[in-house]
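Suppose a colleague, Dr. K., hands you the sequence of a protein chain of 197 amino acids and asks what its three-dimensional shape might be. Before reaching for any lab equipment, you can write down a predicted structure in token form. Begin with the sequence itself:
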Amino acid sequence: MGREQPASYYDQNLKKNPRASWRDYRKPRVRLYTHAAGLLPKECPLVVDLGCGPGLFAQCLEELNPPMMYMGVDFSRVAIKQARARGLTMPADFVLGDLSALDTEPGQHIPTEAVFIIMETLEHITDDHHILNLVPEGCQVIVSVPQFDDPGHVRQFTRWEDVVERYSGQLEISEHTQIWKWFIFKAIRKPHEKEKI
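The predicted structure, expressed as tokens, is then:
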């Protein structure tokens, strides 16, 4: 198991391995992104992607589900720079921000009328429950978590039951599937007073 990494770790990786397109990934990740895009409701005015990386999922959404508004947040300067350089035609805003401090940073605002995407993010953050606390009550959230280890992962899940045990206090999970080495699920953020963290 790895450890939580600073933004500079991801900056270096992104400089070494820039992706021109979300379709440049191997087929399993393309399937993951395609499946996540398919979980969005038909009427989805705003997608908020917490841990958006270099904007590859935004690019996927533009290709598969336009039109919509998109906001991506990431703490890697290189990721945000690459995301902004994608030249998306849909309304998109990429914000440099540390998710672990987002609710206390001056000027940061989390929309309340949105669908939240948290893909390939929670496994990198020690206080993953804090990230879920950023999602307003009643909002839909689409989450993916891995079944594999990585130097930047602080946890991995080998069984679906482990995912349910960890997140069911904050999320009402409605459907899930496994795509290669990821669990992906759709949920609704439960009211805060019902949390069992």
